[in-house]
Amino acid sequence: MKVGILGSGDVATALAKGFLAAGYEVKLGSRVVNNPKLATFVRTIGGRASAGTFADAAAFGDLVVLATLGTATSDAIKLAGVENFAGKVVLDTTNPLETAAGGVPRLVGGLGTSAGEKHQTLLVNARVVKVFNTVGNALMYQPKLAGGPPDMFICGNDAQAKTTVRELLAKFGWNTIDVGGIDASHYLEAMCLVWVLSALKENTWMQAFKLLR
């Protein structure tokens, strides 16, 4: 399977490494044709990795990942071309955060205005699943934690798309907790802040959620 990843930051490259390790072919996309950071990444990682624009990555992928800055993802989707997402499973890893006073992040938007919902509305012919937004990039692939494996919370409107994501998460070393439709994105995006604020307080970033029953 081919995976297109929109983004050039730490989340994008961490997920790219995971997909490559799991045997996928990956193309990362950015706003510009020759992004120097992505060029260096591709040259270093080699193999089945390549880089291009947002549109290149979206068109390339059988599965597409949104891994851009959360508050800029809608613009990235438009630059990529909505038609390049049609019929595809889209992994939304983003969180709409902005920096508040004192450098502490805060969540932008509330019920009905989550990033997940906005992106599904933009990508009306795609199948968006919120995933990978409640953990740091260092643990996205094969997390090794005491008491693991941890749980990844997902939501989305399409049952088949969520089955695809569940199978992918198993390859990445995660259990899956499905919390419903894409309208649950607001709650998962708020969970990101729980993760961030607890990590800041305890000064430990190698942490993940687990639901105990």
**Which term fits the overall shape?**
globular
Low-confidence runs? none
Task: Give the strand order, joined by hyphens, for the main sheet.
Answer: 3-2-1-4-5-8-9-10
**N→C terminal distance:** 35 Å
Measured on Cα atoms, how large is the radius of gyration? 16 Å
- Chain-averaged pLDDT: 96
Largest sheet: 8 strands, mixed
User: Order of SSEs, N→C?
Assistant: EHEHEHEHEEEHEEHEH
Category by helix and strand content: alpha/beta
The helix content, as a percent range, equals: 25-40%
- Note the total helix count: 7
DSSP E strands, number: 10
β-sheet strand percentage: 15-25%
Topology at a glance:
Elements: E1 2-6, H1 10-21, E2 25-30, H2 36-45, E3 49-53, H3 54-60, E4 63-66, H4 73-80, E5 89-92, E6 97-99, E7 105-107, H5 115-122, E8 127-130, E9 151-156, H6 159-172, E10 175-178, H7 185-202
Parallel strand pairs: 1-2, 1-4, 2-3, 4-5, 5-8, 9-10
Antiparallel strand pairs: 6-7, 8-9
Helix pairs in contact: 3-4, 4-5
Structure description:
With 213 residues, the chain is an alpha/beta fold. The protein has seven helices and ten strands. It has an eight-stranded mixed sheet with strand order 3-2-1-4-5-8-9-10, with helices on both faces. A two-stranded antiparallel sheet has the order 6-7. Helix 2 (36-45) links the parallel strand 2 (25-30) and strand 3. Helix 3 packs across helix 4 and helix 4 (73-80) packs parallel to helix 5 (115-122). The longest helix is centred in the last third of the chain and has 18 residues, at 185-202. The radius of gyration is 16 Å and the shape is globular. The mean pLDDT is 96.
